[in-house]
């Protein structure tokens, strides 16, 4: 199989990876800023609130605030972290529909007034502990087309949404908006079309009840561009077409809403995944005969599922071996350092081509790993420390890792 196309990383990120001597995840702040500006140009007038769970790193959050972003927070701790960046609480959306009475009261105390909901029970709790708050009813989506569908746990039906927002009005809350999430790393345009259709139907029903909303929250789902699938093939989401569908959907909802309607989007991995990379090292490349008699290579890295690569069971990250630009490659299963069999790429799929001459201690760069690496990290599973964070800034465009440097699939 041919090598995947070149992975673009910035000159600053390339230099930081090349000079770093210890394991570390490094974020390119200028690259994040460029991705933010590109999003606001593609979707003019849509307010951006970064999904904090994707990268709860203070330096990244503070940088995004300086660019104009607000935040989607899922807990009082995330809200408190957001407030410390200096962002006004009115630009923080409590986007988690799962929250206790204490969570609601603490968020309200911290100044948050926008709350997501999807049930009558939650509305009653918000009315008690956050009187006068603005509520956004989250609609359920199928999640089809996404690597992580986020279905069933969150969101309600269109009929329930009308009932919930009517109840919110009755108890003194402000029925402010609707929200959706099409699924994380969404790969299709159809998911966005279906979400707009569902929102439009609910807007019409709400108008009949005398409820005119002022916002629609489009949630997350915009994909990163640098991933490989579980078989090692490049994921190629139709991002440009998605933006066209979103722009058309926004215009259509404004036409049918019956009120002035503003829009919010809550990207996470889209902003940070391709702007972060991990400098790790090789523990060992070993060769063992399996029970079926076949010999198999295993590449063990210092970084795995429990200290930075939690999503490795659903995708592959591009690997670069800077000390081995040439030479023979062998197909290997890539695994992390822990004494846990889950700490590995999905083994039933394609092997990763790795340099046969790679040795213990050799550096390996794990690209497009900026999303969820820090938030999913354990605090020392099996005695392996979490990765420290670093950051850099510089010119955001340079094809620093090319076809000849990135490891091809088997």
Automatic annotation (TrEMBL):
Q: Which residues form the Orn/DAP/Arg decarboxylase 2 N-terminal domain?
A: 30-273
Its EC number is 4.1.1.17
Q: Which residues cross the membrane?
A: none
Listed Gene3D superfamilies: Alanine racemase, Lyase, Ornithine Decarboxylase, Chain A, domain 1
Give me the reactions it catalyses: L-ornithine + H(+) = putrescine + CO2
Q: Does the keyword Lyase apply?
A: yes
Pathway assignment reads: Amine and polyamine biosynthesis; putrescine biosynthesis via L-ornithine pathway; putrescine from L-ornithine: step 1/1
| Cofactor section | pyridoxal 5'-phosphate
Q: What keywords were assigned to this record?
A: Decarboxylase, Lyase, Pyridoxal phosphate
Query: Is the keyword Metal-binding in the record?
Result: no
List the PROSITE patterns: ODR_DC_2_1
**Similarity comment text for this entry:** Belongs to the Orn/Lys/Arg decarboxylase class-II family.
- Can you name this protein? ornithine decarboxylase
Q: Write the lineage as a comma-separated list.
A: Bacteria, Bacillati, Actinomycetota, Actinomycetes, Kitasatosporales
